[in-house]
Amino acid sequence: MEELNQEVGRERWVREGDIPNLVYLQAVVKETLRMYPPGHLGVPREANEDCCIAGYHVPKGTWVFLNVLRLHRDLGTWNSPLEFMPKRLLVSGAEYLIGNKKFEYAPFGKGRRDCPGVLMANQVMHLTLSTLLQGSHLTVSGDSLVDMTKHYTVTTRVLA
Ligand code: HEM
């Protein structure tokens, strides 16, 4: 809220042009995608020939998954990976996005088939979160903690 008040103020709604200045908000979104990557196993690839990945023989026809959730919580890479700490992605955040070789952070996949919707997705997430924060007063009901249990699903129908 502090950043929003400082960069945008209370007299108008946040706009697309404000987002580059909302660096902490961007870090919050990045850290959320680190801890809870929606595509936690990416999109599988099928080896079209025998190959070797990190010393493992992978026969032709094998399905290969990138375990994004495991990468994002790797103790060798991240300090206290189970803690929500947006600051860790504040400085280095931009270089973690796409088109680079930072394979330890891959919420949008990596390589030639990485997510083409990354810019749109980020824009929508940043604008939605900042508008929600600006327009609402969010509190936790009673003493209860927010339920952060993961539920992965993909659906295109309206749930009853
Ligand atoms: C938070 C939002 C999103 C996340 C976390 C996400 C994540 C991903 C991931 C992990 C992949 C697989 C990349 C790979 O295999 O290396 C992917 C692929 C893809 N995404 Fe997204 N995505 C998001 C939003 C979007 C949006 C908004 C669009 C379109 C407007 C989109 C369109 C696609 C398409 C078309 C592919 C397939 C690309 C290909 O196989 O060449 N995504 N996404």
TrEMBL record:
* Annotated GO CC locations: membrane
The family annotation for this protein states: Belongs to the cytochrome P450 family.
Instruction: Provide the alphabetized UniProt keywords.
Output: Heme, Iron, Membrane, Metal-binding, Monooxygenase, Oxidoreductase, Transmembrane, Transmembrane helix
Q: Please report the name of this protein according to its UniProt entry.
A: Cytochrome P450
Cofactors per UniProt? heme
InterPro entries named in the record: Cyt_P450, Cyt_P450_CS, Cyt_P450_E_grp-I, Cyt_P450_sf, Plant_Cytochrome_P450_Monoox
Binding of heme occurs at 115
Location comes to: Membrane
Membrane topology, record value: Single-pass membrane protein
- MF annotations from Gene Ontology: heme binding; iron ion binding; monooxygenase activity; oxidoreductase activity, acting on paired donors, with incorporation or reduction of molecular oxygen
Q: Which domain of life is it from?
A: Eukaryota
